[in-house]
Amino acid sequence: MRMLEFKKVTKSFDGPEGKVTALDGVSLSVRPGEFLAVRGPSGCGKTTLLLTAGGLLRPNAGQVNLDGNDPYALGPETRSKMRARMIGFVFQQFHLIPYLTVRQNILAPSLALPAKGAGQRAQELVSHFGLDDRAGHVPSQLSTGQRQRTALARALLNKPKIILADEPTGNLDEGNADIVFGYLSQYVAEGGCVLLVTHDVRTAAHATRTLQMVDGRLIE
Amino acid sequence: MKIWHILVKEILHRWRSFALGIFAVIVAVGSLTGALTLLKVHDLHTQKILTEKEEETEKKMAILKDEMRKATLKLKFNLLILPKQQSIRDLHIKGYPSEYMPEEYVTRLANSGIITVRHFLPSLQQRIKWPEKNRTITLVGARGEVPNLYKDPRKPLVQPVPQGTIVLGYGLHYSLGLQVGDKVKLLGREFTVHKCYEERGSKDDFTAWIHLRQAQELLDKEGLINAILALECICQGVEGLLEKIRTEIEQILPGTQVIEKGTKALARAEARVKVGQEAKAAVERERRHRTQMRSEREFFAAVLVPLVMVACAVWVGLLAFNNVRDRKTEIGIQRAIGFRARQIMFLFLTKFLVMGLLGGALGIFVGLGFGRWLGLTLEEDIGGIAAGELFNPGLLFLVLIIAPVLTVISGWIPTMIAIRQDPAEALREE
Fold first, then answer.
1. Which residues on B lie below 8 Å from A98 (Cβ)?
2. Diameter of chain B by CA atoms?
3. Closest chain A residue to B9 measured between Cα atoms?
4. Cβ contacts of residue A154 below 8 Å, gap of 6+?
């Protein structure tokens, strides 16, 4: 069973210097329990791959399947619900909401997908990620490692089937990067799957499979 | 956590922008309320000025009216009704009428329905020798006023001389050493001095007044009189009045003639009417002046208020655009974690709604205070007007509906931009 599948997906943009092809006939699949790392230099199309996988960027051609459904065949509202239910996002810049506390940031996805016990789950995640003493702090009062752990906890609140991570360790030191990889690996071990895009060569040590991306194309 | 937690937290996080938005709404609502309050202060002041002027005019008119009554009395009477055969030349030479007419004429006149004359005073006058005192005097027999039955009763202007009494002019009582209560004989009949007049400097100083009936007996002119004095002929409208009264009286009493007495009273009456007309014209002029002033202020408000409101709406719109730009990534991540478009819309529009409500509520009081202050400054001598007098609950209700609606409209386009923005674009830019 494939959690995520790309079939000859192409995505291009009109740039100031003409058309830019960010994804050029990309095909890939990610299974539950798999930690797939896509490595490549900046501008090779990694973030486009991730956003397309997350139902946020409609491809020009090809097909995307998420848990057997094409997210782009759904209406915007249904696609939003699907994202809330199935996907957890982690970004290099963390993208925490600046005026919410750690606990509130972790709880934010519950507003998109209300569920009983969200508060308790958030508290468990706060403890799990070692953020108890920072639960009432806003992001500007946190270290970069704490911010990324908060972002990771937020991504896990709704128990997603896949985590899409864009350079999650890009702003972290080695220690914090190892902690984040440790949590991701644990998530995969518990049956989740991760698609991670990065330029960091150290990722290979944590991923179950690594692909190289060059000019919008994937190379095994 | 509920979605309004995010709303409140965001407002508190960007409180400066929110405060600027509220300020814009306060300015917009304040200018509207201020203009309306200013006009209300103007109206109250106008009402006060006109009421004062009208009261002042009424007082002045009452004083003039009273003065007129007194003047009419002092100047004797307005009209003298004489037998037709009476020579006016003889009247002026002798100082009293020498022809006679029936006393019944006065009753006929009083019952005739004539409305231009209020009272009638019949009299019998004759120059006689006062043998007991060896003086020549004018003897006047008077019976008091006969009221016009077709007019409202009024206090009599002349008190009647009671029977058996005599009223003496200054020249007589002074030279004869008589006082009120003294007994005196006239043509063989005894009278008690009822009143002694002060010096008037006229033939009255050598006149004695007794009751008409007794005068008729003493002069052997029973049932006859030789003059009827018409009192308070002048009531309203002077122009052509004399001619009107004259015609009216001559129709009722064909054997009589009417001459004018007391021209000064007529002049005063004319002046009184003119003063009254002038006072009314002054009130009218003030009313027109105030109306014009109000129109000017209304015009000024009609131009300025919409301009201020549009400027404030643009201001709120720009703040909203800025807010959307600042929150581009935030909106992107909210969309990425599954927030639906209507939730984003709720976050923005509710913020504008709250902004409009708060700004509207504060603006109405700011406008009320400012309008009151400006009104009191522009309208001198108005004194204090309680704010409660200017407060309009209907306006508050209207503003609390209109201000949020307009604020939401101002923020509508930026909100639409926010919900339509591509989250991927925002996240890729980062």
1. 13, 330
2. 138
3. A99
4. A88, A96, A105, A106, A108, A109, B337
Cα separation of B370 and B199, whole Å?
67
3-state SS, residue B237: coil
- List the one residue out of A41, A37, A64, A55 whose CA is nearest residue A216: A41
The first and second tokens of residue B358, run together, are 């708060």
Structure tokens at B213: 């009936």
- Between CA A11 and CA B425 the distance in angstroms is 13
How far, in Å, are B282, B287, B289, B296 from residue B292 at the CA level? 15, 9, 5, 6
Token representation of residue B287: 């009313």
In this complex, the residue of A56, A85, A99 whose CB is nearest that of residue B424 is A56
Domains annotated for chain A, with CATH where assigned, are 4-219 (3.40.50.300)
Residues of B within 8 A of A95 (CB-CB) are 329-330, 332-333, 336, 427, 430
A→B contacts (Cβ < 8 Å), by residue, are 47-48, 51, 54, 56-57, 76-77, 80-81, 83-85, 89, 91, 93, 95, 97-100, 104, 107-113, 119, 154, 158
Which amino acid type is present at position B383?
A: G
SS3 B82: strand
Q: Rounded mean pLDDT of A70-98?
A: 91
Strand B79-83 and strand A87-91: the pairing is: unpaired
DSSP state of B84: T
pLDDT tens figures, A118-142: 999 999 999 999 999 999 999 999 9
Got the DSSP string for B90-119?
HHHHHSS----EETHHHHHHHTTT--S--E
Structure-block tokens of residue B129: 């020798």
Q: Which amino acid is at B8?
A: V
**Burial classification of residue B203, based on how many CB atoms lie within 10 Å of its CB (0-12 exposed, 13-18 middle, 19 or more buried):** middle
> What distance in Å separates the CA atoms of residue B18 and residue B12, rounded to the nearest whole number?
8
This complex has an ipTM of 0.89
Which of B341, B356, B340 shows the shortest CA–CA distance to B402?
B356
Instruction: Flag whether residue B429 sits within 8 Å of chain A, measured between CB atoms.
Output: no
B335 vs A contacts (CB less than 8 Å): 56, 80
- Could you report the per-residue pLDDT of B252-293, keeping only the tens digit for each? 888 888 887 655 555 666 666 677 777 888 888 889 998 999
Burial of A174 (0-12, 13-18, 19+ CB in 10 A): exposed
Q: Which has the closest alpha carbon to B276: B237, B232, B231?
A: B237
Q: Is B339 on the interface with A (CB under 8 A)?
A: yes
What pLDDT digit, counting tens, does each position of B195-224 carry?
A: 999 888 888 889 999 999 999 999 999 999
Give the whole-angstrom CA distance, residue B404 versus residue B360: 7
- Contact call for residues B285 and B92 (beta carbons, < 8 A): no
